[in-house]
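Reviewers of the previous submission asked for a worked example of the structure-prediction workflow described in the proposal, so we include one complete record here. The input consisted solely of the amino acid sequence. No template or homolog information was supplied to the procedure at any stage.
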Amino acid sequence: MKKTRHDWSRADAMTEQQIHAAALSDPDAQPLTPQRLNAMRRTPQVKVIRRALGLSQGEFAARFHIPLGTLRDWEQGRKEPDTAARAYLRVIGHNPSAVTDALRPRSRDAPR
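From that input alone, the workflow returned the following structure tokens.
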């Protein structure tokens, strides 16, 4: 891939107001309004949750019954968790011990 060299002298000669006006004129670089921010989906940060628990990817995947490949895809941004997975990750983030307990195998004789 060929590297492109940029001539920054034109940008360096602009005032802050001119830079701001140029940025606003770009339809792909509009600032977030409170309405647009509220409309955005919030995805739990899987890597942040996993690291806060002090778990490796393998440990996190095994403990919470998530396929390791899926976890890696989420962490590396190749895929986003669907609605159910986002809810599950939110619960893991708020109360991981409850999730671990709920997923623990129960003996046949133990009351439910």
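The radius of gyration is 23 Å. We consider this example representative of the routine output the project will generate in years two and three.
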